[in-house]
Amino acid sequence: MQELERDAGCQDVSVEEQADVLVYIGDMAVSLAQMAQKVGHHGLSEYLYHAAQKARGPVA
Known about the structure:
There is one protein chain. This protein is mainly α. It has one domain. The protein has 3 helices and no strands. The longest helix has 24 residues, at 15-38.
């Protein structure tokens, strides 16, 4: 996250904003995992579900 802030020129991103972004990323990963599951890519689906859990952290 700090690298993204530095690259974007941002100096201060609140913890709440960071958490919101991570939840959003987790939601997108879940959506992609569901699509992968539907088309038979079970390994990719598992990987994406795991990524979603990591992104969301304890709220998942």
